[in-house]
Amino acid sequence: MIDKEQIEAVILAGGMGRRMGGVDKGLQTFKNAPLALHALLRLQQQLDYICINANRNLGAYEGFGLPVVCDRLTDYQGPLAGIHAAMSESSAPFILSVPCDVPFFPLNLAEKLYAPFEDDPQLELTIASSQGKSQPVFMMAKSHLLMSIEDFLKRGERKIDKWYANHRHALVEFDDPAAFHNVNTLQELAELEKQS
Ligand SMILES: Nc1nc2c(ncn2[C@@H]2O[C@H](COP(=O)(O)OP(=O)(O)OP(=O)(O)O)[C@@H](O)[C@H]2O)c(=O)[nH]1
């Protein structure tokens, strides 16, 4: 059984959005609402504690009514920097991360990523996987990994896959590959809007 008290979720909206021309991806409109709000609405069905990681337009994100955390390490070091920021500010033993650009992620994400920890107390993190391919931005990690992330980023590394390989982890398979469809360009956003 999932213990919601143990987990804080972070919506990662701190990227540069280069493939969207440098716009703030989380604030782009999809089905009449900002992308990050879609993520929030899905998380609210799963967990009670949620924050947003953003590095610009902070007022707009604060308008969602959640705590907003900024990267502590500068220079846009990738999604791990956002997970690091959330871990730094949270007192929850587990952090669940989701990106802001996957509007249909599974509604049983938190439950399924939490379950393996109950069977294996040594486990440090779980990562979503779909059709055998990992989706590493969808991660549930124990908060004691904060210093490990910090050391890794300070060494100039940034790839999540390389980081988690050093830790006891489990991949958790999800059935519906469409749920992990992410949007990288404004054209992809418009196409997804038409399809759905
Ligand atoms: N906090 C933080 N989050 C990031 C950073 N880079 C990417 N992300 C987040 O990680 C997720 C996946 O991001 P990407 O699509 O790889 O990067 P992006 O910045 O959104 O877009 P591109 O610049 O086009 O790659 C998104 O939720 C981003 O907001 C970063 O430097 N800091």
UniProtKB/TrEMBL annotation:
Role description: Transfers a GMP moiety from GTP to Mo-molybdopterin (Mo-MPT) cofactor (Moco or molybdenum cofactor) to form Mo-molybdopterin guanine dinucleotide (Mo-MGD) cofactor.
Binding sites annotated in the UniProt record for Mg(2+): 101
EC number in record: 2.7.7.77
Keywords from the UniProt entry: Cytoplasm, GTP-binding, Magnesium, Metal-binding, Molybdenum cofactor biosynthesis, Nucleotide-binding, Nucleotidyltransferase, Transferase
Oligomeric form and interacting partners: Monomer.
Record's protein name: Molybdenum cofactor guanylyltransferase
Any Pfam family hit: NTP_transf_3
Family note: Belongs to the MobA family.
Region forming the signal peptide: none
SUPFAM superfamilies registered for this protein in UniProt: Nucleotide-diphospho-sugar transferases (SSF53448)
Location within or outside the cell: Cytoplasm
Organism superkingdom: Bacteria
Cofactors, names only: Mg(2+)
Encoding gene (name): mobA
